[in-house]
Design brief:
Layout (H helix, E strand, L loop, with lengths): L2 E5 L1 H5 L6 E6 L2 E8 L2 E6 L13 E2 L5 E2 L6 E2 L16 E2 L1 E4 L2 E7 L1
Antiparallel strand pairs: 1-10, 2-3, 3-4, 4-8, 5-6, 6-7, 9-10
The site of FE2/S2 (inorganic) cluster has 8 residues, from loops.
């Protein structure tokens, strides 16, 4: 797969831990979640009916809860952990020499 890699270090430095944040990167709306030194990136809208996932919250396992119908997704891999059979698109995040980059498919 061919990714366009975008430096998101400035955005990441402003992220609160364990908070969902929607941002625009490379013309695309994505959601970000920082947990300690790890950052997860995922589609900003729910794969079920398109609700804004960053208006949701995290459950006790750290899974994203959609604000509309409460389906849950693992931010690591997009797994729909409440079992409705959807898949949240995720984007790779890499740390290179202390800088954060997110890969968006071209
Ligand atoms: S829109 Fe997210 S669970 Fe329905």
């Amino acid at each position: 797969m061919l990714y366009d890699w975008h430096n998101i270090s400035d955005i990441v430095s402003g992220l609160a831990d364990n908070a969902l944040k929607e941002v625009v990167v490379g013309g695309k709306n994505i959601g970000l979640l920082k947990k300690g030194e790890t950052v997860f990136a995922f589609a900003a809208t729910c794969p079920h009916s398109g609700a804004p996932l960053c208006d949701g919250w995290l459950d006790a396992r750290g899974h994203i809860v959609c604000p509309l119908h409460k389906y849950k997704f693992d931010p690591k891999n997009g797994y729909n952990s409440t079992g409705e059979g959807y898949k949240l698109r995720t984007f790779p995040v890499e740390v290179r020499e202390g800088e954060f980059f997110v890969g968006i498919l071209t």
